Amino acid sequence: MFNIAHIHPMMVHFPIALLMVGYLADLLFLFIKKEKCLSKLGLYLLVLGTLAALMAFLSGSVFTNHPTSGSIFPVFENHELFALLTIISAVVTLTVRLYAVITKKDETSLKWVVFALYTLTACFISITGFLGGYMVYNFMLGI
Predict the structure, then answer these.
(1) Is the pTM of this model over 0.90?
(2) Residue 142: is its pLDDT beyond 80?
């Protein structure tokens, strides 16, 4: 039977996959410079991953039960914090990346700023996903 609380767990896999594969594409592009398609792939996946992260965050905020006490509470608070940090860093990364592409500065030292921001976003989404999985498997949240 479908439960509205299942929407968040169904959506969270998209931003994780999109942002992490996009990050890996950008990482590969740094080493294989002649493959421009990797850079474009990284940008497109960053756009889709940022949108998916926003949708996952909203679905978690609206459709899931929020623990208010117990040993799960600090884990939940950290999960929410890193989800918010993921969205902020993804939006900032996307904004700087689009600026670099539009102004044709994506082959300057600005690419390293974008890569650093993308690295931060990848770290944040990894921590968010880990904490979400920790709540599901260790506290049976949502099961």
Answers:
(1) yes
(2) no
Q: Are 57 and 7 in contact (CB under 8 A)?
A: no
Euclidean distance between CA atoms 118 and 76, whole angstroms:
24
Cβ 40 vs Cβ 142: under 8 Å:
no
Q: Residues 135, 76: contact at Cβ < 8 Å? A: yes
CB atoms within 10 A of CB 100: 18
Residues in the chain: 143
In order of 18, 112, 131, the CA distances from 4 in angstroms are 24, 41, 21
Residue 139 · residue 37 · CB < 8 Å: no
Distance (Å) of CA 117 to CA 8, 41, 87, 94, 138: 26, 17, 12, 9, 31
Torsion from C-alpha of 11, 15, 20, 26, nearest 10 degrees? 150
Interval 91-120: pLDDT, tens: 999 999 999 999 999 889 999 999 999 999
* The token pair that represents 39 in the structure block: 């850079």
Alpha helices in the chain (DSSP H): 7-11, 13-31, 36-63, 72-102, 110-139
